[in-house]
Every structure is written in C-alpha cells, then in structure tokens.
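Teaching assistant's notes for section 4

Start the section by putting this record on the projector. Ask students to predict, before seeing the second block, whether 6-carboxy-5,6,7,8-tetrahydropterin synthase will look compact or extended. Collect guesses on the board.
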Amino acid sequence: MYSLTVNDHVMIAHSLPDEFFGPAQGMHGATLTVEATFTRAELDEHAVVLDIGQAMEMLDDALSPLHYANLDEHPDFAGKLSTTEATAHYIGQRLADSLSDQPDVGITVTLTENPRAKVAYTVPERP
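Reveal the predicted structure now:
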C-alpha cells in the first residue's frame, strides 16, 4: 500500500451546546491541523498515488468554506454538533467528491485539535 499525505490548518469558531462537552458548550475558537492521507494499493501510470500539487489543491478546496467560519452558522453543520469528528467527516466527504472519478484512492483525514488529541476519519470504500 502506498500513501501520500498533505497538510494544512484551519481556524474555526463553534459551540457544542450539550452538557456532555463541559466548558466547550460555549462559543470558542479552534485551530485544527489537517492531514489528508491518500492511499493506493498500486501506483498509477505516472508511478504516484496522486500528483502532490493536485492533492494540495483538493485539500485547499475542501478547507476553503471552513476558514474563519463559525460552524454554528455553516449550512453543512445545521442541526448537528460540529465536533472534531464531524469536521473530519465533512472534509473527508469533500475530498471524496473531488476524487469521484478515482474510487481506488483511499482517503483518511486526521485533525489535530491540540498536541494531546487528534481524530481521524477514513472515508468508506467508494464504488
């Protein structure tokens, strides 16, 4: 299995209005480090998983609606808790949409919320 990882970060604001989240119930900001890992069992005809520039551009496009956004007001999070897990899912689905013509490329999104906590979401196999 081959993999390519590109990264970036995104600054968001949100609240998690449920007692479960303790002090994070109130509005707060977060800077999330984002890693997108693309995998392939075999390299393509160019001997790569993906073009690195293409991978970085896809990640940029996936993150652009989130930059400095208040996720409480973001239409894709309406009626949902904007947890780090939910944010990883959102980014993973946007990347999957960008790779709809390449279902053999696996996608895992890892978000680091702080130096002690990170979350990963792996997009299920696509037909």
